[in-house]
């Protein structure tokens, strides 16, 4: 099956496959954690039971998605020591610290307060329970902060020196490593994407139940209507902000990774008096041209430089061996932008419907929102492909190539693990995703039940097991603990 693939390409495919599966879960749970904190706060503030119903409805989905995100993320870290051990050896002194901070300061915060968030409402009081919800939301943000800092450093490395003897990247300025030139743009753009992803999943689920209730001639619950209203407000507010953030991120990329922008725009040639904005085309890397191109003259120069006649460099100024694969970058970028414009359209439509008092009655809006439910997941994957494939042929841009980062493995070994990943991932995460969709297919109801507890108390290890009541009664005192 993979006989014509080399070890480098197989390792890249394997990492892309595992990170794609992983990325869709944090892209959902980062926004959902904040949504749950808002719902919980609204319930404690207003005492309106619909917010509690929505919290209990979505927290079950969050728990499962969070678990799948953790499991899929652990697998990725092992690949740094197997397929990408050379990269880990060279970049470890720089990226090892931030990745450890992600575990210590972010994941521990999430995991430590998750149990209180799920089961502590009736046990710790509203203040501590609300604190736990906020802590989980902050933890998800901090996870994104550290991981995106590492990823951004690989795109725009700063604050380091290269050891002449070992070839390792050694940090010289911690703050430059963390707050490298592309990090603020990538962080804000990605976080906005996670909030939009959550908003459209929530809005899609609400739209599904609004449409189903209408077909049955039933009135939707207040919780369902509130869920749809909140999701549409997020679309109205965040979608235009995201477009602005994406534009600023693109300008930053033009400054530090110009060949990526050239590939995104399909500019094989330089344009001394204004570059066209291509809407469609088939990139042809061999001939260095865009076949069947349909574009708007000079608009790309205006978007990128604010001047219709500004000169714009093309890939003809970049050596062939330093050019990214244009086909993937060109089309993934258009998919991301196209979905962003559709999100903007949904937000605008919902605002008009809200002003007319028809937000819960506009059937075509509900159908549109339902169709757009998974769009955020598609957009974040397309954006990830754009930024990561656009960085090729480098893992550390301008310094370390992908071919020089891979471990000395044979292609059959990488292929075998790739096949195993494909089979196991589709079985495990396919089942988990199917179960999440089943939970979403049921509407939130009044008096939504909380997550069930399956044990009466904490799990105890051998040596600290409490004595049975019978032994206590027979001995008239606590039983001896083995080992004491």
Automatic annotation (TrEMBL):
Where mainly found?
Answer: membrane
Enzyme Commission identifier(s): 1.10.3.-
Record keywords: Cell membrane, Electron transport, Heme, Iron, Membrane, Metal-binding, Oxidoreductase, Transmembrane, Transmembrane helix, Transport
Q: Which GO terms describe its cellular component?
A: cytochrome complex; plasma membrane
What membrane topology is annotated for this entry?
Multi-pass membrane protein
Query: What GO terms describe the biological role, i.e. biological process, of this protein?
Result: aerobic electron transport chain
Example of a GO MF term: oxidoreductase activity, acting on diphenols and related substances as donors, oxygen as acceptor
Tell me if Cell membrane is a UniProt keyword of this record.
yes
InterPro entries per record: Cyt-d_ubiquinol_oxidase_su_1
Q: Where is this region: Disordered?
A: 457-484
Pfam families according to UniProt: Cyt_bd_oxida_I
Q: Which residues cross the membrane?
A: 20-45, 57-80, 100-120, 127-148, 192-211, 223-245, 328-352, 364-385, 414-437
Record-given protein name:
CydA protein
Which lineage is the organism of this entry classified under, starting from the top rank? Bacteria, Pseudomonadati, Pseudomonadota, Alphaproteobacteria, Rhodobacterales
